[in-house]
Design goal:
Elements: H1 2-23, E1 25-30, E2 34-40, E3 44-51, E4 56-67, E5 70-76, H2 90-93, E6 98-107, E7 110-116, E8 121-125
Antiparallel strand pairs: 1-2, 1-8, 2-3, 3-4, 4-5, 5-6, 6-7, 7-8
């Protein structure tokens, strides 16, 4: 009985690790006002927001986790295509940082992190070569 339980538990852990590993990479959202990028590494994300002229306006990083079909980003600055007039320092962004959880799914073999479906704010995984 113990062997069966350990075998099942081991399979679940391996499947969740494989799902998490498949998420690693770069994602982007191109809005009317900004280009928002999200880079997922092992347990760490890097978030960069550029203006229309490709000037870096914000950069932050923290931890992320995956549970089921949702990604949780700790201390995330959720801009949702708002124009940034000047670069936002980490100190200035501090009051806007939050824990966020977004659905993750595949659509036409493309991995998508859905931030706001009503506003069509979707991070799409960029192809890796």
């Amino acid at each position: 009985m113990r062997k069966i339980m350990f075998s099942i538990l081991g399979s679940i852990i391996m499947m969740s690790c494989a799902a998490k590993k498949s998420l690693l990479g770069s994602y982007s959202f191109k809005g009317e006002n900004i280009i928002d990028t999200l880079i997922l590494k092992n347990d760490i994300y890097i978030h960069k927001i550029y203006n229309k002229d490709l000037k870096l306006m914000y950069q932050g990083e923290d931890q992320w986790t995956m549970e089921g079909d949702r990604i949780t980003l700790l201390r995330f600055y959720n801009n949702e295509d708002n124009e940034l007039e000047e670069p936002l320092s980490n100190k200035d962004a501090e009051k806007f940082l939050m824990i966020t959880s977004f659905p993750v799914y595949k659509q036409n073999s493309e991995t998508i992190i859905e931030v706001n479906s009503d506003e069509n704010i979707l991070y799409k995984k960029t192809s890796t070569r």
